Amino acid sequence: MGKISQGVLGGFSGKVGNVVGGTWKGIDYMRIKPANVSNPRTAGQVDQRSKFSTTLRFLQSMTDFLRVGFKLYANKMTQFNAAMSYNLNNAITGTYPNFMIDYASALVSRGGLTGAANGAVSSSGGLVEFTWTDNTGSGNAQATDKALLVVYNPTKDEAVYDNAGAARSVGAQNLAMPNDFIGDDVEAFIGFISEDGKEVANSVYIGSVTVA
User: Fold this and answer.
1) First to last CA, the chain
2) Contact of 123 with 211, CB cutoff 8 Å
3) Is residue 91 exposed (0-12), middle (13-18) or buried (19+ Cβ within 10 Å)?
4) For residue 7, what pLDDT is reported?
5) Mean pLDDT in the chain?
6) What is the CA angle 169-171-174, rounded to 5?
């Protein structure tokens, strides 16, 4: 049974016939409950579900990081959902059942701040070592911008990250890896966030490296 909360013209919660009402992030909504589908596993549906699962595995490993990386795109949706939407539509390659993340097209942070220049990655001593060129003064880049660093391990579907790293002017930072990452190939991304947290840069994929 549905419950009307603000009079006959207000929002309601619950189910009335085939209409479902509710509130999400302070917004009243109504939607039609979909009819039963005789064949819910069409080729298109299977493809989309597989793409969704591939994207979800990638991003679930860095949920907390995405709250910073996609903070500017959480408009009537969560930061995670904003990241899901972007990467589902832009970062999937391959054909069913072999969909994969195209890391070069993926974003783990998004915004209008000037991004990283000449980013590179290497590994030794259980560390993943990021380097970049200090491009302070290029566009809106500031020396005090903080690095946003992500190392994703596709073998384990786990990530190590820093959402308030070294300043842009420093040009380098290391991330310590778990012991069980040794010998695994990992994918590295770098972005930036302004010191006041109001601006974020699109991340840049800087390559794959074997953790040594």
Assistant:
1) 60
2) yes
3) buried
4) 44
5) 88
6) 130
